[in-house]
Specification:
Order of helices and strands: HHHEEHHHHEEEHEHEHEHEHEEHEHH
GO molecular function: transferase activity
Mean pLDDT: 95
Number of helices: 15
Number of strands: 12
CATH class of the domain at 155-287 and 307-351 and 367-394: Alpha Beta
CATH architecture of the domain at 155-287 and 307-351 and 367-394: 3-Layer(aba) Sandwich
CATH topology of the domain at 155-287 and 307-351 and 367-394: Rossmann fold
Keywords: Transferase
Shape: globular
Protein name: Acyl-CoA transferase
Radius of gyration: 21 Å
CATH superfamily of the domain at 155-287 and 307-351 and 367-394: Crotonobetainyl-coa:carnitine coa-transferase, domain 1
Strand content: 5-15%
Structural class: alpha/beta
Largest sheet: 7 strands, mixed
Low-confidence stretches: none
């Protein structure tokens, strides 16, 4: 390869270089060490859980399924954009209808804003990054300043009694998360032999359920589907959480606490692991692309940053979250674990970069193997009720 590193070659062949760089420029190989580190983590987790984990497939799989390519300062998925603020770069995500609807309030205009991005570019250019992020977050719009987050290990606190070390096989996992990072962790645990129950509200099901079916199947095909109203039937959900060995959630802590469904509200269970995944610190919204921007995990073009791969903070966090759950099982659990997507991205961002090269092939990412079709919403409610009843009797 004429001096080109094997890491760069692997980054290129994985499709990740194809997803990084300006759309009218060459692919970017500078973040090749991110994949190398992810492969090391995947190998360690796979050995612990007894499953084979393809790190490159995890990082590039959604783009392959959706046919995405690099967009430079427009994320591969299209919902996030990099903007120049008065003192540097920031990112704003408009992935939900409410986000776009809040743009006039953000830019402080009474006029209709049919295309929000020109207005956002003009507004951001006259404000410092901190003001852009602060005002966007007040309106619940995901936003981040480049490099604002520092690398940090997951926060781990005792929660209940520690039990014996356990393997994941046969454990019951209540997966309340949505989108990508949390569901990926749940899916890896399911593939390792856990019984995973995907919990969704009928009022607000997982947003990816209504999107690309192949992606939803990939993340959720091994799980039972349990549909329950978090407000009207909180008792039924509390019963599931009480008997669960592992709980995965990605909402803001207050969302469950106000319903008395948080880790402090559920009857203790020996060895239970409560995994909380959030974009930042649990007080603001975020998605994979803006969280990666916050962590400084970006590619670099001649005139500034570009997005690195596709929402890369999501699959990296899902992989890292699975690692910390596996480690906790080895310690006997009894822990509340909080994982920040931005902090995970920052940890990968500090890995050495290398000069980008353009003389290597950079094919599109390969499509992952077909997954088992995910269950329709609520299809397994009766089975979950039986499972909860059986486990509840076992605790009597």
């Amino acid at each position: 390869m004429g001096g080109v590193s094997s890491a760069a070659s692997t980054w290129g062949s994985s499709g990740l270089a194809y997803l990084t760089g300006l759309p009218d420029g060459p692919p970017d190989f500078s973040r090749a060490n991110v994949l190398s580190q992810a492969q090391r983590v995947a190998a360690a987790v796979g050995e612990r859980l007894g499953v084979a984990i393809d790190a490159a497939g995890l990082l590039a799989g959604r783009a392959a399924l959706l046919g995405l390519t690099r967009g430079g300062r427009v994320s591969a998925g299209g919902a996030t954009r990099l903007l120049v603020a008065a003192d540097g770069w920031c990112a704003i995500t408009l992935s939900r209808p409410d986000d776009a609807a809040a743009v006039p309030a953000l830019v402080q205009t009474d006029d209709a804003v049919p295309d929000p991005w020109p207005a956002l570019r003009r507004w951001a250019a006259t404000h410092p990054r901190s003001a852009v992020v602060e005002r966007a977050n007040l309106l619940d719009i995901p936003a981040a300043a480049l490099g604002e987050a520092a690398a940090a290990a997951p926060r781990i606190r005792p929660r209940g009694a520690r039990g014996p070390a356990r393997d994941v096989g046969g454990l019951l996992v209540a997966d309340l998360s949505s989108m990508w990072a949390g569901p990926l962790c749940g899916q890896l645990l399911a593939l390792a032999g856990a019984t995973v129950v995907k919990v969704e509200s009928p009022r607000r099901p997982d947003g990816t359920r209504g999107g690309n079916q192949a992606f939803f199947d990939w993340m959720n095909g091994e799980k039972h589907s349990y549909c329950v109203d978090f407000d009207d039937h909180a008792g039924a959900l509390r019963a599931l959480l009480t008997v669960a060995d592992i709980v995965i959630e990605g909402s803001r802590p207050a969302a469950l606490t106000r319903r008395r469904l948080g880790p402090d509200d559920i009857e203790p269970r020996e060895g239970r692991i409560w995994l909380r995944i959030n974009a930042y610190d649990g007080t603001r919204p975020g998605f994979g692309d803006d969280a990666a921007m916050a962590g400084g995990l970006v590619g670099v073009a001649a005139d500034g940053p570009v997005f690195c791969a596709d929402a890369i903070a999501d699959p990296l966090t899902g992989l890292e979250a699975t690692r910390v759950v596996a480690d906790s099982l080895g310690r006997g659990g009894g822990e509340l674990i909080e994982v920040s997507m931005a902090a995970v991205a920052a940890g990968y961002a500090v890995l050495p970069t290398q000069a980008s090269v353009s003389n290597l092939p950079a094919p599109p990412p390969r499509v992952p193997p077909a997954a088992r079709p995910a269950a329709p919403l609520g299809a397994d409610n009766e089975a979950v009720h039986r499972m909860v009843a059986e486990r509840s009797c076992g605790r009597c």
